[in-house]
């Protein structure tokens, strides 16, 4: 009988203590981040405002444009992208998980196609990776804009978003040379 009473007391203490510990962790900001999935909102060709140009040694041109996400508008929902200067393509997405608004590290990997000679422009690496920190539950944008002729490589372009080592989203585009 004494054994059953001890089990009942331990169970009661656990029922009272663990929720209190969880509340304390929430107050202290120690809530564990959970990423369930990444949802694609829309994709295709966009128009936006460039706020500044930054160094990007991993890119083909060596620079990248920082854009205004709030002023990024979908022009055409398509997976076929013309390889013309000034074309911006990609997708908007939202990270689904908890807690809301917590920034999470995502790894963006952009897989470039080979050029007809078997290498892409300037013998650059076919894989470009960059770390993003979007907030959970907010819409964000990832894309690529053709700034030079060397970047306008026809073929399949693949955008991948990873959380830790899990592939959370992937979108492929066919870039073509317009006639």
Can you put this structure into words, describing what you see?
By secondary structure, this protein is α+β, with helices and mostly antiparallel strands. The chain has two domains: 1-31; 34-176, Immunoglobulin-like. Helix content is 15%, strand content 46%. It contains one helix and eleven strands, in the order H-E-E-E-E-E-E-E-E-E-E-E. Strands 5-11-10-7-8 form a five-stranded mixed β-sheet, with no helix packed on it. A four-stranded antiparallel β-sheet has the order 4-1-6-9, with no helix packed on it. The chain is globular, with a radius of gyration of 23 Å. Residues 1-28 have low confidence and may be disordered.
In terms of DSSP E residues, the strand content is: over 45%
Measured between the Cα atoms of the first and last residue, the distance is 87 Å
Cα-atom Rg, whole angstroms? 23 Å
Helix percentage range: 10-25%
Give, in spatial order, the strands making up the sheet with the most strands: 5-11-10-7-8
The level-1 CATH class of the largest domain: Mainly Beta
């Amino acid at each position: 009988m004494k054994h059953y009473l001890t089990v009942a007391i331990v169970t009661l203490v656990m029922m009272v203590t663990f929720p209190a510990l969880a509340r304390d962790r929430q107050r202290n900001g120690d809530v564990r981040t959970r990423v369930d999935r990444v949802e694609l909102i829309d994709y295709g060709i966009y128009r936006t405002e460039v706020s500044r140009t930054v160094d990007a040694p991993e890119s083909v041109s060596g620079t990248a444009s920082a854009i205004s996400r709030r002023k990024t508008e979908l022009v055409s929902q398509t997976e076929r992208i013309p390889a013309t200067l000034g074309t911006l393509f990609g997708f908007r997405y939202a990270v689904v998980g908890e807690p809301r608004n917590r920034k999470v590290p995502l790894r963006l990997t952009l897989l470039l196609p080979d050029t007809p000679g078997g290498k892409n422009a300037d013998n650059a690496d076919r894989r470009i990776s960059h770390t993003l920190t979007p907030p959970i539950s907010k819409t964000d944008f990832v894309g690529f804009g053709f700034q030079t002729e060397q970047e306008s490589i026809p073929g399949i372009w693949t955008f991948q978003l990873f959380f830790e080592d899990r592939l959370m989203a992937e979108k492929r585009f066919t870039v073509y040379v317009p006639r």
